[in-house]
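Appendix C reproduces, verbatim, an entry submitted by the partner laboratory led by Prof. M.T., so that reviewers can inspect both the input and the predicted structure.
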Amino acid sequence: MSVVFKNILAFFLTALVSLGTYAQDNEAVTFEMKLSKEKLGLNERLRVDFTMNKDGDNFVPPNFEGFRVLMGPSQSISSSWINGVRSYSKTYSYTLAPTARGAFTIQQASIVIEGKTYKSVPKKVEVTAAVDKPSDQMTVDDVADESLHLVAEVSKASPYLNEALSVVYKLYVAPSISVSNYQPLDNPKYNNFWSQDIPVRRLSAENGTYKGKPYRYVVLKRVVLYPQKSGKLEIEPLSLDVTVDVPTNKRDFFGGRIYSQTNKTVSAGRRTINVKALPEQGKPVNFSGAVGNFDFSVTTNKTALNASESLQAIVEVSGKGNLKLFQLPEPNLPSSLEVYDPEFNEDVRTTLSGSQGKVSNHYTIVPSFKGKYPVPSISFSYFDPNTESYKTINSDEIVINVKEGPLNAAASNATTNSSNKQVVTTGDQFNFIKLNPNLTAIGSNYFFGSTCFYLWLLLPLLLIPAAIAFSKKREAIAGDVVGNRIRRANKLARKYLSKARKELGQKEAFYVALEKALHNYLKAKLKIETSEFSKEKIATLLSEKNVDEETIESFISLLKNCEMARYSPFSNVQMQQDYDKASEVISLLDKQL
């Protein structure tokens, strides 16, 4: 009897499960939008959930017009069995912040479930003026979002072509929170601009205001830009991942406030610069692109000298503007003066107001003949954005007096031809040509039997001992396994670090080249693409190759320095130390791998 009862019970349980599954499979599909509130203040947050009772694909959210997405979409799934009936729910959630007061409509979202497209019903939301909201109702992310702002301050929104403008990136932090760390996520590339970074030597917090409220701010990055193209140009945003400590209403055992930590991504946003083209009206023919306010001069270190002596002529432009972005005018010198290629000198410093200093070409001039040679006046033109007009400066004419030296034959002939005097030849004008060269004949067998003949004959015998010594030397070098390994490692280090060595003194270029050299070394040595690996993955990989911990730590430390150098001041001494350390680490790795 008990066996029959068990069979009946199993039958009914199977039937119940089948009915539950059938009910689940035939349950009507639902897809709906739920709002946390239909009326909120401008300083409040709105949570929007899109919930479905069956799994779907190709979810398309609305554009949330009138709101800014703070978080989302976050996805949650709930599945359970109750009395043999399966319950399933999947939700896409968004946290929104209103951008203005008024009545807004959250438009419909769509999703594909079992091959059919389902759409949610639009819902209206009313945004009122800001309300007095207790701080304990705000989440940590809400507080951080309202208290942290990255701003790009641009000095000029409408500069002329090749006129300097500065961009200063400031991180504003409300007094109620604190920032413990930040990492750059995206660096602007300044396309169509000539750029020069101004290093931030020390990060120091200063008091300021943001939208009328007191804030503390830190200057993270400063750059001077010279637009190289007219029209509307975009400055890409700088984005940071910031670790924020937000105070809560909870207190510890000693009464101290407990802080909650969260990570926020802040961006300075894109900035559009309207670059004005230089006017065509009044543009000088010799204009070479100089924009700013300049002085121009042409000087020589001496004006009187003898033939075959040298003098220096200096063409110099000084002032404030795009000193590195135009060509200096060239002097037009007489053909009787031998002129060498100029040596370019630059003494320019860059501040937030632009570049200032001087650039010059130093010409070495050597006269060949006696006489007086005028150096004509040279003109230099530039555009002054302050007066919005072109200006031209002319140098003074310089006369070079060559007191002693041979006469210029061309000048003498020109002088003779211009006079009316008759030229009488004496018949001895070719006496300088020697008619009796006093040459002696060379015997046909002169080489044979000479000293050179015997030296060439004995040379192979003399080279045999040298070849034997050279061969023994090569065998000794080949037998020195440790020495050869060290030499190969040092040669390999110089190969990969050659680019970084050329950039010593230029912080950003040096550390970019150094990081690339380290990755290229591992790529070539281990046949891997290290750019796809994190520092932890690289450390694990090297550890698997039996590289000692000290060498791995040195390698990872160099990679960290390359990242930190983009936003931290590094001295020339530090760069030299990192270069030496990289050379040593590559050598050690090559001996261990």
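Residues 451-479 form the longest helix (29 residues). Additional entries are available on request from the coordinating office.
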